[in-house]
């Protein structure tokens, strides 16, 4: 697995709180829910991703002897607490919508039900995994919606924020509908199709562009995509045409040319004309270079003859919106509902379920209810772990990807648009409001001077 599973990959306050709970003997059942408070203006939906890695983390998480010895040397953690941590394992339950599900604000991506010291310690890493993969999958889904019939390849590894981010981005973009990735390890780990040919340095290393093209054809006869903009894009296209007959005699076909710079809207039609007039009508045009969904909309809307896109930096970093407001909040402890009331950061108490209605195959509205209640539609959350162990076999990436495609196809027209849309209807059941008022009355009585 590419993911770091150490329990020390956490915030210090998780451990200081656990020490406090241990000292006070507090370890009754707690319920935490991970959700997004709101969507940024640039987003109309979220595509939930990261559940498989979250389950892996929870199943495997424990403190090693080396980690415990290091903790014992830190201030404020006595030996009895270190011994307490030595036995830490997750033995609780997890509830979640299937990975690849479309979600909206206030809808749980994950519910954790476990003794307090187990549920609390998971917070930081679960947010880290679920937030990032959902962020990237949601960005990538917008690219797929913008370019439904074009080849899309993840090109973002080199500018992703670290090795783990690069791998998780390759997986998240594939879930969202990309055709593959340039990140080789993602191909080995998950079977994601891998794409790639050459960089400008390959052209520069040869004495001429024509020599470089011919050499690459000899080395990669079945992967013949030529980068033509190292010096002059149109001259590069003409050299491809000049090379094609000699390659054809050897049974080799130039699959595509790639443009990585310049005004793609102006250059691609000219390249297409050169290729067509040179008898290379089947040779595709693939482009890259700082693209995201907005560029795709413009290029496709202008009917620019581009067949595929390498989309990298702006997707793998979600450059237009680098984070989402995801939070992990206590909603019940020791059988009592709990809620945060901080101004602007209020949370809803109790264990929740989400029901989704459909009309003519399209999502028509969601209703968030308390667990045990029912509503019209399909319930989204299901129990995925009990006793600290998965309840089902690991889903294949193909299954998750197919689900995501079906979910995106079922989005209402307004939410499919890249422009900000009116919020998708998510109704909070009256019982939630009533429970919040009850909790508030109890909190007010307890804090009254």
Could you describe the 3D structure shown?
Strands 13-12-1-5-3-17-18 form a seven-stranded antiparallel beta sheet. Strands 7-6-11-10-9-8 form a six-stranded parallel beta sheet. Helix 6 packs across helix 7. With 449 residues, the chain is of the alpha/beta class. It is 41% helix and 18% strand. The relative contact order is 0.15. Strand 17 and strand 18 form a beta hairpin. The model has no long low-confidence stretch (mean pLDDT 96).
Short characterization:
The model has no long low-confidence stretch (mean pLDDT 96). The radius of gyration is 26 Å and the shape is elongated. Helices cover 41% and strands 18% of the residues.
Which helices and strands occur, and which strands form pairs?
Blueprint: H1 12-24, E1 29-36, E2 46-47, H2 51-60, H3 65-72, H4 79-86, E3 93-96, E4 102-103, E5 110-115, H5 116-121, H6 123-146, E6 151-154, H7 163-175, E7 180-181, H8 184-190, H9 200-205, H10 209-219, E8 225-227, H11 233-249, E9 256-259, H12 264-277, E10 284-288, H13 293-301, E11 308-311, H14 313-316, E12 326-333, E13 336-337, E14 352-359, E15 362-370, E16 378-379, E17 382-386, E18 389-390, H15 397-409, H16 413-416, E19 426-428, H17 430-447
Parallel strand pairs: 6-7, 6-11, 8-9, 9-10, 10-11, 15-19
Antiparallel strand pairs: 1-5, 1-12, 2-4, 3-5, 3-17, 12-13, 14-15, 14-16, 17-18
Helix pairs in contact: 2-6, 3-4, 6-7, 6-13, 10-11, 11-12
